[in-house]
Specification:
Number of helices: 14
CATH topology of the largest domain: Trigger factor, domain 2
Helix content: 40-55%
Largest sheet: 5 strands, antiparallel
Shape: flat
Number of domains: 3
Distance between the termini: 57 Å
Number of strands: 11
Low-confidence stretches: none
Radius of gyration: 34 Å
Mean pLDDT: 92
CATH architecture of the largest domain: Orthogonal Bundle
Structural class: alpha+beta
Strand content: 15-25%
């Protein structure tokens, strides 16, 4: 077997593989013998079918299979040995001659390659990119404070319900004429959040109620979602078909949601026991958190600007036609060529940035460790629980959640690429000049 690389231009090449009978015949004969030993062919005992019959039935598909295996193995080995950096994967050449599997014994295959472009990574303080620092103001403090108070609030008794309140009631199933249904469903303690009632007329029935009031509600109109209705009536969803929509609700409690007070209880819930002991300390701690989160926003904006700047600076030329063919091949049945061509400019930018990032990583010997991946997953888990108001979760729970994230298909690779990008950005930031500008939240949000 022989492999020859032919350069088309700086971005494209063709690999020509010549496979002779001697390359695949020993393996074909081995597989045919195994087929003869195992094949169950009518009229013959296992292992006693004539060789000529086995050849007639199986030789050609086995040759096709073994030749394709040789092609795959040989291509992979050649690319590694020759240290060829390619984009996408080798594609059958458009110049490939037809193969006659019935008569040919020796074969020639051609594969098109898209080559990774060469470019020089030149960065200096002459490369200037804006870095926006967002001011911490009273508006942001109020947003954060209200968010913590909302997440840690609870329901308290109220005399008469309003549109965002909660009604607790007993529910009795009724007939169509609103008479009690014999053997009907009885719910001793149902909770109805008025804001979640879908139908406006049903919602209106629940506003202005007090303990002891009785009202008839149509549960199918109030909760058209089967899951919500089943939860209200404390039954399985598959039992809903046998349930009448009308229910008599006898109000037992009326409650309203109250945001948490700015007191020690809230401070402990948000930042841990005894970490914050006054409103002043709470505001200081909150400012630190706001600044930290705003820094993430600033860094993300820098990444956007940095990508745009460097993509424009290096103007990396790509093998466009090859890449479009490859994208069509890997997305067969999902996207048409026309769709891929229309979206190619965005793909081209993403790929250009990936090449820049990878070159920074290569020239600076950047590596990602398993420990770094696990730490990232732990921090992600911590943020997820904190977003639900559970900021003090034990590490063992965070570790279990992090492990489940890393086991999801493709998630570990995404984390590795994110960490590599972060390290590459640090290198780039040190090499260029950041033009720091302080802006308000509104000014930042209006940046183009």
């Amino acid at each position: 077997m022989n492999i020859l690389k032919e350069e088309v231009d700086a971005l494209n090449a063709v690999l020509k593989l010549t496979i002779d009978k001697i390359d695949y015949e020993p393996k074909v004969e081995e597989v045919l013998k195994d087929y003869r030993r195992k094949a169950a062919i009518k009229g013959f005992r296992p292992g006693h079918a004539p060789v000529s019959l086995i050849n007639k039935l199986y030789r050609k598909p086995i040759i096709v299979d073994e030749v394709n295996k040789l092609i795959s193995e040989s291509l992979s080995k050649y690319l590694v040995e020759q240290k060829l950096n390619i984009l996408g994967e080798p594609l059958p050449s458009e110049q490939q001659k037809p193969i006659d599997w019935d008569t040919q014994e020796n074969f020639e295959f051609a594969f098109d390659l898209g080559l990774t472009p060469e470019f020089e990574l030149t960065l200096s303080k002459k490369d200037k990119i804006p870095y926006y620092t967002i001011k911490v103001d009273d508006k942001l403090r109020e947003i954060y404070s209200n968010s913590y108070r909302q997440r840690n609030g609870n329901y308290k008794p109220v005399e008469i319900t309003a549109e965002n309140d909660l009604v607790k009631a007993t529910l009795n199933e009724l007939n169509d004429d609103e008479s009690p249904k014999d053997g009907g469903i009885y719910v001793e303690s149902a909770s109805i959040s008025i804001a979640l009632v879908a139908d406006e007329a049903e919602k209106a029935k629940l506003i202005g109620l007090k303990a002891g009031d009785v009202v008839t509600i149509d549960t199918s109109k109030a909760f058209p979602n089967a899951t919500d209705k089943a939860a209200l009536l404390h039954i399985a969803k598959d039992k809903l078909a046998d349930v009448q929509p009308l229910f008599q609700a006898t109000v037992t409690e009326t409650m309203t949601f109250a945001k948490a007070e700015l007191d020690q209880e809230l401070f402990n819930k948000v930042y841990g026991e005894g970490v914050v002991n006054s409103i002043e300390e709470f505001n200081t701690k909150m400012d630190e958190e706001i600044s930290k989160n705003l820094a993430h926003e600033s860094d993300y904006r820098l990444l956007i600007d940095l990508k745009a700047k460097l993509i424009e600076k290096f103007k990396i030329e790509l093998p466009k036609e090859f890449l479009i063919r490859w994208l069509v091949a890997v997305n067969e049945g999902k996207h048409t060529r026309e769709q891929i061509e229309s979206e190619f400019p965005m793909f081209e930018k993403d790929l250009s940035w990936q090449l820049i990032r990878d070159k920074v990583a290569l020239e600076n010997d950047l590596k990602i460790t398993e420990e770094e991946v696990h730490t990232f997953a732990m921090n992600f888990a911590r943020q997820q629980f904190a977003s639900y108001g559970m900021s003090q979760m034990p590490d063992e729970y965070l570790a279990n959640y992090a492990d489940s994230v890393l086991k999801k298909d493709g998630e570990k690779r995404k984390i590795q690429e994110k960490l590599l990008e972060d390290k590459a950005v640090v290198i780039i930031r040190e090499a260029i000049k950041l033009d720091e500008k302080e802006v308000t939240t509104d000014e930042f949000n209006n940046l183009k």
